[in-house]
């Protein structure tokens, strides 16, 4: 068990420190454990599914450049490992010569274990060294192997992670795209005929291009740190995939709306026909009522009545044709527009009828008021009063004659009411009677 000290050179000067036996044994054990770990790692790297895929793929872009370097690194790793193995074997042979190694053997071991005695081919493309060969210590050799191994593993694991994630998702989305296209064609949503048909073509082209790019250049679709580093450091970049998925979902919703139209088309068309028919009948009634008002009511402004909604009827015919030809994508927006406009047309027709018949309603109200006061007068025994009879006859002739002057008739009814009120005043001494809402007088 000699101590550590300098070994004299041929010139008699100290050269290199000598390692003690215990230190040599500890270092050999450490190197043996490292050797096993490195061999296991290299074999796992050699058998990695990602490496086999990279070797067999037609690569492009970033992945092609990095894999070319990585392949060279893997080849050099095995060369360096062989040199490491030879150095370790040589050191073990020297140590096994004697149980207690001689100073010369310890010096030889120090040279093998610590000296730059391992000659290796140049790794210029990886390290930038201009030399044809290099000499390294075992520690430097292991450090370099560890670095190259980590870099190679990053490339392989990253490519494998992208290939494991994106192509399968793209294929599932492509299958959904095919189903959507088939459904779209069945309802008339085709390229050049409907915007959603054009969108489907663009999504198809994008997914085809995206899958080809992912397969040939997976490293271009990685975001963040390498998957071989800290967990959660990176992930496949799904930006383009996500955009295509959102676009397909938008198209799918549009096609579902078209399908709803197909299932509901007949019911909606029948309702539209009914609404437009009612609007047409209401306008016809308004036109007829206007003629009656002009004939029966004098000095009254009667609004004009528009013609039937012919434009809407023509569009309804077009909608029925779209349904017959199964052009659902064209029928959908037309039905929505027609439903809103048809409801507006029916409302307008009803408002027109109300406006036209307003004078007749006024005349009917005056007639009812006149008869109500006559009945009141009769209940009080004043039906034969000359003044009341005269004013009643005057008002009645105006209201039941044609054309009727509403302003004059209303004035005549009011005069009759006033006369009745004056005659009936003495009779208001008794219990309070119901009052007329318009005049405030007792009935």
What is the string of SSEs from the N terminus onward? EEHHHHEHEHHEEHEHHHHEH
Q: How far apart are the termini?
A: 141 Å
Instruction: Compute the number of strand runs.
Output: 8
Share of residues in helices: over 70%
Mean pLDDT over all positions:
80
Label the structural class. mainly alpha
Low-confidence stretches: 1-14, 428-432
The rough form would be described as rod-shaped
Distinct helical segment count: 13
What characterizes the major β-sheet? 2 strands, antiparallel
Sheet with the most strands: spatial strand order:
1-2
Would you give an account of this structure?
- The chain is mainly alpha-helical.
- 71% of the residues lie in helices and 6% in strands.
- The protein is built from 13 helices and 8 strands.
- The chain has helices spanning 21-47, 49-56, 61-95, 103-114, 124-127, 138-186, 195-216, 239-296, 310-324, 328-356, 358-379, 386-399, 406-424, and strands spanning 6-8, 14-17, 118-121, 133-136, 222-224, 234-236, 297-298, 404-405.
- Strands 1-2 form a two-stranded antiparallel sheet. A two-stranded antiparallel sheet has the order 3-4.
- The chain is rod-shaped and about 160 Å long.
- It starts with 5 loop residues before the first strand and ends in a 19-residue tail after the last helix.
């Amino acid at each position: 068990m000699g101590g550590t000290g300098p070994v004299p050179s041929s010139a008699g000067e100290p050269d290199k420190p000598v390692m003690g036996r215990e230190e040599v044994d500890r270092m050999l054990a450490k190197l043996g454990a490292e050797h096993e770990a490195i061999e296991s790692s290299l074999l796992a790297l050699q058998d990695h599914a990602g490496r086999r895929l990279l070797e067999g793929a037609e690569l492009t872009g970033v992945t092609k450049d990095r894999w070319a370097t990585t392949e060279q690194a893997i080849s050099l790793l095995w060369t360096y490992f062989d040199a490491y193995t030879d150095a370790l074997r040589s050191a073990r042979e020297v140590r096994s010569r004697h149980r207690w190694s001689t100073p010369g053997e310890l010096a030889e071991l120090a040279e093998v274990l610590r000296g730059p005695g391992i000659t290796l081919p140049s790794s210029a493309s990886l390290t930038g060294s201009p030399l044809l060969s290099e000499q390294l210590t075992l520690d430097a050799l292991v450090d370099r192997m560890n670095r190259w191994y980590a870099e190679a593993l990053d490339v392989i694991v990253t490519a494998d992670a992208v290939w494991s994630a994106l192509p399968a998702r793209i294929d599932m989305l492509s299958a959904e795209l095919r189903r959507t296209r088939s459904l779209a064609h069945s309802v008339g949503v085709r390229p050049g005929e409907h915007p959603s048909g054009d969108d489907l073509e663009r999504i198809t082209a994008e997914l085809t291009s995206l899958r080809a790019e992912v397969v040939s250049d997976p490293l271009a679709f990685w975001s963040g740190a390498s998957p071989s580093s800290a967990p959660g450091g990176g992930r496949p970049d799904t930006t383009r995939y996500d955009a295509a998925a959102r676009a397909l979902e938008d198209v799918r919703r549009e096609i579902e709306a078209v399908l709803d139209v197909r299932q509901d088309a007949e019911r909606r068309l029948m309702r539209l026909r009914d609404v437009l028919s009612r609007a047409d009948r209401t306008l016809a009634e308004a036109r007829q009522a206007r003629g009656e008002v002009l004939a029966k009511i004098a000095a009254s402004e009667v609004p004009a009545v528009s013609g039937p909604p012919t434009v809407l009827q023509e569009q309804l015919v077009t909608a029925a044709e779209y349904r017959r030809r199964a052009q659902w994508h064209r029928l959908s927006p037309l039905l929505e527009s027609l439903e809103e406009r048809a409801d507006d047309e029916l409302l307008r027709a009803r408002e027109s009828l109300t406006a036209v018949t307003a004078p007749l309603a006024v005349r009917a109200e005056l007639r009812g008021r006149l008869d109500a006061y006559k009945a009141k007068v009769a209940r009080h025994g004043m039906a034969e009063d000359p003044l009341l009879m005269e004013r009643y006859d005057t008002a009645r002739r105006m209201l039941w004659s044609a054309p009727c002057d509403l302003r004059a008739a209303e004035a005549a009814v009011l005069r009759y009411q006033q006369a009745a009120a004056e005659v009936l005043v003495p009779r208001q001494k008794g219990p309070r009677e119901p009052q007329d809402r318009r005049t405030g007088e007792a009935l």
